[in-house]
Structure prediction request, 250 residues.
Amino acid sequence: MEKIYSRTKTIQEDKVSGFCPGCMHSTVVKLIGEVLEEMNIVDKAVMITGIGCCGLHMDYIAYDTITAPHGRACAVATGMKRTSPDSLIFTYQGDGDFASIGLGESISAANRGENVTVIFINNGIYGMTGGQMAPTTLLGMKASTAPKGRIAEEHGYPMHMCEILNQLTAPYYLERTSCNTPQNVIKTKNAIKKAFQNQLDGKGFSMVEIVSNCPTNWGLDPLDTLDFIEEKMLPEFPLGVIRDRSKEGV
Ligand SMILES: Cc1ncc(C[n+]2csc(CCOP(=O)(O)OP(=O)(O)O)c2C)c(N)n1
Prediction:
């Protein structure tokens, strides 16, 4: 039978994935591996994971990883990059990690223009701990801590991290993508590549926000999560380049 799928060299063949079936973390992890291999930078890569499902692959990837205390990945990345400037330092964080408990560290690192890359997985909830409301939960979207759905008067509004960071002077590159269609998977891969290249070129802070799913806690079949992303998530979190200072000749 013709083989139609294989893991990248950065993901060990003999290990079972830590992610639930249909989870987009798997897709993004594969893309990161492909990009590192294509750019020939596997040996210099260090991933700083947040706490959550974003750390479930650390046992079976071929590049170095550090787990930061919850929310502190951008602070750890700052220290790593400043002390090891030749390494390719990227964080890999969920929305609970990056936009809630780590909000201060995230904004501060972006505001300093640290020369690191953030891969921010926005699945609208806290995945690992059972679907609690995150800063990115949509209005009306159910969460285990908001069983009737998010209500603006009680819980505030969804937070748009790309747009918030776009208020700062320092960030170099901010793009929001998704992996809900093959075209968007390709765009996500290109965005990750660009963000890593920015770091190699010493350009400063880059972030790729990836609008993702959580079939388990959304209570949806994996295929139905793709429709949910298209119909509900993307109107709230529109895809595209929010900032690219290379276009300004910087
Ligand atoms: C200081 C601290 N507070 C709370 C927790 C519990 N905790 C573990 S994972 C997690 C949620 C992570 O959610 P998110 O960042 O959205 O990542 P996902 O699991 O969705 O990828 C929480 C609250 C913890 N480990 N440490």
